[in-house]
Write a structure and sequence with these properties.
The protein is an all-alpha fold. Helix content is 68%, strand content 0%. It is built from 8 helices and no strands. Helix 2 runs antiparallel to helix 3. It is flat, with a radius of gyration of 18 Å. The relative contact order is 0.18.
C-alpha cells in the first residue's frame, strides 16, 4: 500500500515539448505590456491617492494569460472570477480572524480554492490574492472590501484587456478559448 502510494509520485507522462521562440516572444510582450499598464496606472495615477492597482498575484496571472493562453485556468472567467472571489474571501477572513493570523491565512487560501472550484473560476493566482488580503499589511487592510474592486478586480480587468489585444495579434495565437 505504501509502495503504491509512493509510485504515484513518479508521474505518469513525459514533460511537454518546449515552445518556439515566437511563443516565447509573444508571451514576453504580453506580460510586459500587461504588467506595465497596471503598474503605470498604479504608480502614476493612483500613488498619491493611497490606492494601488498592482498586487503580487498579478505576476502569476501574467504567466497564465500571456504564457499559457490555452489553459482553462487562464480564461477570462477564471482570471476575473478567481481574483474577485478570492479577494472577497480574503478580506472576509481577515475581518473575521484578524487577531489570529495563523488561522486567517490558511482559511483565506483554502476557502478561496473551494469557492473557485464551485464557481468554475479556478485561477491559481487567486489563492495569492486571498492571502495578500490577510498578510498585505495596514495599507491593504484599510481598503477593506474595496480591495475586491481595486486592485483585484480592476487590475485583473486591465490585464485581460491587454491579453485580448496582444494574444490575438499573431496568427498562431488565439485568446480566449472560452468566456463562460
Amino acid at each position: 500500500m505504501i509502495m503504491e502510494y509512493l509510485q504515484k509520485m513518479k508521474g505518469s507522462t513525459k514533460s511537454p515539448p518546449a515552445v518556439g521562440l515566437s511563443e516565447v516572444l509573444w508571451s514576453w510582450i504580453g506580460a510586459f505590456l500587461g504588467i506595465a499598464t497596471v503598474a503605470l496606472i498604479s504608480y502614476k495615477l493612483l500613488e498619491s491617492t493611497g490606492f494601488t492597482l498592482i498586487i503580487g498575484s498579478f505576476g502569476a496571472s501574467a504567466v497564465l494569460i500571456y504564457g499559457a493562453i490555452k489553459s482553462p485556468l487562464a480564461q477570462p472567467r477564471n482570471l476575473i472570477g478567481g481574483h474577485v472571489l478570492s479577494a472577497l474571501v480574503g478580506v472576509t477572513s481577515w475581518q473575521m480572524f484578524s487577531s489570529q493570523m495563523w488561522l486567517a491565512a490558511p482559511l483565506a487560501v483554502a476557502t478561496a480554492i473551494a469557492v473557485m472550484h464551485t464557481t468554475k473560476t479556478l485561477h491559481p493566482p487567486g489563492g495569492a490574492t486571498a492571502l495578500i488580503a490577510v498578510i498585505g499589511g495596514e495599507s491593504v487592510h484599510k481598503l477593506g472590501y474595496l480591495y475586491v474592486i481595486l486592485p483585484a478586480g480592476a487590475g485583473a480587468l486591465i490585464m485581460l484587456l491587454v491579453a485580448l489585444l496582444v494574444n490575438n495579434i499573431p496568427k498562431t495565437r488565439r485568446y480566449p478559448e472560452f468566456w463562460f
